[in-house]
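Email to the structure team, subject: Cytidyltransferase-related domain protein model.

Hi all, the expression group asked for a predicted structure before they design truncation constructs. Nothing fancy, just the tokens so they can compare against earlier work. One-line instruction: predict Cytidyltransferase-related domain protein, return tokens.
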Amino acid sequence: MVDTAIYIGRFEPVHNGHLALLRRALDNAAHVIVVIGSAWQARSPKNPFTWQEREAMLRDALPPADRSRLQVLPVRDYYNEAVWVKAVRKGVAALTTTGAQMGLVGHFKDATSSYLSAFPGWELMHVERQGDIDATSVRDTFFSASPETLPDTLRQLADQAPASTLHALERFAQTDAYPALQEEWAMLRSYRAAWAAAPYPPVFVTVDALVRCQNRVLLIRRAHAPGKGLRAVPGGFIEQRETVWQSCLRELAEETHCELSESRMRAALQSVAVFDHPDRSQRGRTITHAHYFDLGDEALPAVRADDDAMQVEWVDVERLPAMEDEFFEDHFHMLDHFLVLTTPP
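Reply from the structure team: attached below.
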């Protein structure tokens, strides 16, 4: 027995494998903290549910007596394991007493389980994997349904997820978000299938342009899947005969018509950072080179949406922290890197 058991996951959605681990935690500690990852990500086929919806799924799957012993700790994606571990430890410390004996519940299923080794001092409470239940396959089954086949689809999932999750999925299928995510899910499957015959898994190279002026940043809303309607900084794929610098200026001009001279952009360039976390994009392994430009207090350049942007606007930097769940992939993290929007853990 330990004083507090900690269970870390994304729970997209909650399935029976999650419940087996949660049961182990509840059976071995009076107090359980569930760390819900990807807490403020925008809805996507990989992250369809808000952290509050996932918390509700977890609590609804438990008897009332166990719900009272459970606390939830939402944690954002930092795309940096050391920073993420620090955030988890800080959050857990705020919910526990000094000197409490901690246990970490989990099992090593693949490379994504490496975080279990990142918490020395917490006793590892290993639980064998529960068959082949996997949240990715549950999502694939769910998003492949049509209105006519949805009842049968949910019945197919009855041996993989608790009734509370199936009821939550049924309700979610009635929302406007569901068909939009189905469309994006189908697009991503086709996208990955097009590269399936490549001799090696492809690695894509992209560029992004974070332009700041009068303490505002230039943002677009994406016109196409993936991430249709989500906010992003202007950017796109590098072309065969371009440098990353040339691609950055081209994408900025194509999407926003912010067509300042190259010499002006070079003078405004503050730094370039590479964002290369393996999970930053659902399209596949994608490495981007983000360029940060600051135009100071000069007049805001005229802009208009075009190409892959349905909307373009100058947004006050002060507004950005409250908009975290509106951004595509890791673009809020990109803004945070350059503009320091959040308090470091």
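The radius of gyration is 22 Å. The domain at 203-339 is CATH 3.90.79.10 (Nucleoside Triphosphate Pyrophosphohydrolase). Ping us if the truncation boundaries need rechecking.
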